[in-house]
Amino acid sequence: MLPGERKENEILVHICCGPCYTYPHQWLIKNGYGPTGFFFNPNIQPFREFRRRFETVEEYARKTGARAIMRDDYLLEEFLKGAFEYEERGKSRCEFCYRWRMDETARVAAEMGFKRFTTTLLSSKFQPHGLIKKICRESAEKYGVEFFYHDFREGEMENVRISHDLRLYRQKYCGCIFSERDRYQRRLVREQGETYQKK
Asked: Across the strands, what pairs with 68?
C-alpha cells in the first residue's frame, strides 16, 4: 500500500474507555472489519481519571494486540469553555462534547485514509443514541468519510464479562466533571433522605 492508503475493510473506532471498546472491537473483527481504536477524550476529568482511562485502553491493546491511536491531550480549559458556550446558546454541554470528539474522529479518519469511522459511545445504554447517530452523520459529511452504524448496546454484558476477565478498570461516571458531580450529588441526597426517614 502507498502511504495514506488503507484496506477497504479498515475502520477507525473512537474509544471513550477501555471496557466500552471490548465488545465493539471483537464484533468488528468477527464481521470482517479491521478496527483501529482512537482515544480522544478531552472531556474526562480530573486528570488522574483521564490518565487511568488512557492507560486502561493501552492495557487492553497490550493484552489483545488491538491497534490504537492514543491522544493524550488534556484540554481542560477548551472543554469547559466550549461546554459553557453551548449552554449559553441554549444547547446541551453533552452535545458539544459529542460533536467535538466525533468531528475530530472523522477528521483523523479522513487524514489517515480511513473510509469510515464509528464510536464506542454506541455501546452504552446511558448515552443518547439518536443524538450521537445524528452528530456522527454530520461529522462524516463534514470530512467526507462514512459513519458506520451498529447498535453495540447488544453487547453490554459481553463488555462487562471481557473487561472483568482482563481485569480492566471500569469507571463510575461518564467522564466530565459535571457527570461526576451529578452522580455523587444524587447519591448524597439519597443517603441523606434515607437517614432522615430512619429518624
From this structure: 37
pLDDT tens per residue across span 179-195 = 667 666 666 555 555 44
Domains of the chain as residue ranges with CATH: 10-171 (3.40.50.620)
Decide the pairing of beta strands 67-70 and 116-119: unpaired
Nine-digit cell string for 116: 469510515
* H or E segment and range at residue 165: helix 156-165
Q: What is the pLDDT of residues 140-159, one digit of tens each?
A: 999 999 999 999 999 999 99
List of residues 6+ apart from 148 with CB closer than 8 A: 11, 116, 117, 118
Give the C-alpha separation, 162 to 16, whole Å.
16
d(CA 66, CA 60) in angstroms, rounded, equals: 7
